[in-house]
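Risk register update: the risk that structure generation would not scale has been downgraded. Supporting records follow, first protein first.
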Amino acid sequence: MTFFARSNLKNWLPGALGLLGIIVLMAVADISHRNAGADAEQALLNAPPTQTASTEAPAAKQPATPAPAAAPAAPAKTAAAPAKSEPAPAAKPTPAPAKSAATEAPKAAPAPAPQAPAPAAKADAPAPGHAMNHAMAMAPAKTTAQAQSAATPAAATAPAHLEGDAARGQQVYKKCQACHSLEPGRNGLGPSLAGIVGQKAADVPNYNFSAAMKGSGLTWDVATLDRYLADPQKVVPGNKMPFPGLKTEHERSAVIAYLVKISGGASGAAAASPAAAPKQAQAPAQTSAQKPAPAQAAAPQQQAAASSAPAAAYVPGVRYTLRSGIAEGRMVFIGVGGTIDGQINPLLSAAEGQVVQVTLINGEGAEHDIVFDGQGPAGSSPHIVGRGASTNIAFVAGKAGDYAYFCSIPGHRLSGMEGQFLVTPQPPAETVVEADISLQSTQVPPPIGKRQPQTVRVDLVTVELEGRLAEGTTFGYWTFNGKVPGPMLRVRVGDTVEVHLKNAENSGMVHSVDFHAATGPGGGAASTQANPGETKTVKFKALVPGLYVYHCATPMVAHHIANGMYGLILVEPEGGLPPVDREFYVMQGEIYTAQPFGQHGSLDFDVEKLLNERPEYFVFNGSVGALSKLHPLQAKVGETVRFYFGVGGPNFTSSFHLIGEIFDKVYNLGGVLSEPLHGIQTVTVPAGGAVITEAKLDVPGNYTLVDHALSRMERGLVGILHVEGAANPDIYDGVIEPGH
């Protein structure tokens, strides 16, 4: 018991009390640290989304001891991220009205720790006493700060740049309207897209969704729509949608903006990130640890106001990715991906009012940022430290002019980190370009004649383009080789036909080809379903001579045909056909537009009219006036002419007739093994069928090609054969009235 003697207690008691005091202090500091981390995490959820920075500091052990007493200040509501937080999947970035208080605060010296200072503090640290200061001091060296852009309450009308995107998106939407309606409750082959933005997947009444879509659990916010439209099968494997997706960001951005607009302006961003009021982002943080920050008190009210207002959708018009690095002995920005890939300090450009998204990746570990001169606060990024760290910013391009972008870290701009940012005037509204898609009737391959069977290569490219339908009117055609009809193909019986079908990279649909001349699954369609950018190959042997139709056979097949995807292939018999003076290639089709016949402008496809077989236009070779005003047929008296005529359809039978002539020979239904008919006035040709007719021209003048269901003439179905030569009064004697 001598241990407890007065002398021993005098020595032991102070030490024990000191140790107990240290333990109590450590416990208090630990509670403070946890509370600060929780407050910082709550701040991330409540604060307005801001520009993002992912920072990775050099590896270093953090002190286990608490930060100085000043650190546990009362946290303001700022966009600080807790340690090791991972960035959430971001919706389409939107330009923030202003940087948050976290990014507005001037850079301050790192808070000293009792042991070695943390290198992580070298990143763009807030001022001492700032809400996130304590959390940063206690965090491990590797941190990730989430980045999202501010959602802005929608005004009465959408922003000008959004209107522009939506206008372009309305044109892109033509690729969707064959299967989808924008009217509530009106489902087609696909569900109605009315109000889709913000809607849960598989939540459209009276539509039978696939099990894959029902189980996807998706909500159609802007980001999810963008991913799904890029690759539907990748996002929802096993869904029933045959559409391959929109492969260009421009088209996806535009059509999403259009869907946002028709959905009432709500972007669905709330599903991807918490709502927050823009004013909150501008409120300065309170530095006093004793006073509750005004921003905190106002936050719930502001949040409620923000969540009750629909958010305007800001869809980037252009995206750039840059990486910091060393090249040519200096510090530089290096382009990543797209047309700027590998370029040093590449020229970046945008149009006035266009939303620009820029990603900066730290390529070598030094501290960097990026500033776009003249583009306001949103055009400046946070600092990033550590190789692989990154940040994203989004801003609206200002007035047209020549600006610079640069790194604002002292000395970096002079060391080479500077490039040109060119803002061009807002492009004029898209104008109608009347591209002639009509194939001239004279584009017939030469006769094959006598030769041995061989392998014949056929190259077809499926191209989607806006083309002339009539004077002052255009339509979105789907074509083989950019023309309607597709090219006439010519082989002989016994040939092996090797078909290479390439679907253009900018196509919005899967395409294929079905040859009525082929024997095998789908006439080749089973082997040629090509996604945009793909090439498919199929071979078949031409077994039976005759004139045959070929067409796209991708669902909905009638839609692909109605938009222009049809043509003819002639399989000559041994020795070929008897020679004639001229050969012409003519095909008939129907076009189903939402707008009535004769309306000018860019017309839309109408799936309901297609299904109800109510076309607005009937055409020879793809357009009104193709074989009358644009490319009339020409011949001379005494010549024998041959017509290779087919009906692409997809629905109507033709009563092919040449006004003023009698067909001397008719190879009925395209068959050439039977003897031809003679002296035929009108030939019936079904959809998907063909015929070969011949006529000897005895009298000069204009002869009119028609379908003798003559009301179709009033919807564009007419062609002219102009015959020159000496009069022949023995056969025809009369005064020809002007215009005939």
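Supporting record for the second protein:
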Amino acid sequence: MEEEIFYSPKEILTRILVALFTLSLILNVFMVIKLSKYKNILHVTETLLQTEQSRLQKYIAGEQTSKQEEKTIIHITGAVKKPGVYEFTEQVRLFEVIEKAGGALDTADLGVLNLAQNVCDETKIYVPKKGEIAKDITINNTNSSSPNNVNSKININTATADQLTNLVGIGDSKAKDIIAYRKTNGAFKKTEDIMLVKGIGESTYDKIKSVIIVK
């Protein structure tokens, strides 16, 4: 016959308290582990948010800088009400430049101009009067193969600054750079050599290659 074990009320209470303490300790350890995981998750999430916020700020700053740099400055003279230099923040067409200059005079011969033409940065435009021979009109059709176009081609080895500014995308600054390059390096051997001038790239060359020559 097994001997029955009897515990005093004090011992029973002690055992219950020990069990509760042990259970509480286990629960606390479990909660600490869970909280630690959550903290790690929160830390990672916070880091990702900070990274994305930094990227967004850089992107916005880059967009603003890009927009600030995308300026088109045009010099328009001739038969307009307010000739001068005008700045645009977007791509602009010839008729918009004329409007910016106060509009054309009644004596202007707009029939010789392509009013729908896109105007590049640093372009000089001359709006001729009726009966006047146009001298500084921007040429849009650079792919023309007309025989008459040969006589109007500009020799980049002898052209003056004024003549060079008649070319699409060539303003006063680039015209001076072309002349300075000629003085330093000698005559251009082929039309492609104009791309050796600082600031004149392939896109500009494509627009003017059919209206320039070297002699």
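The chain is about 45% helix and 10% strand. On this basis the risk owner (M.S.) recommends closing the item.
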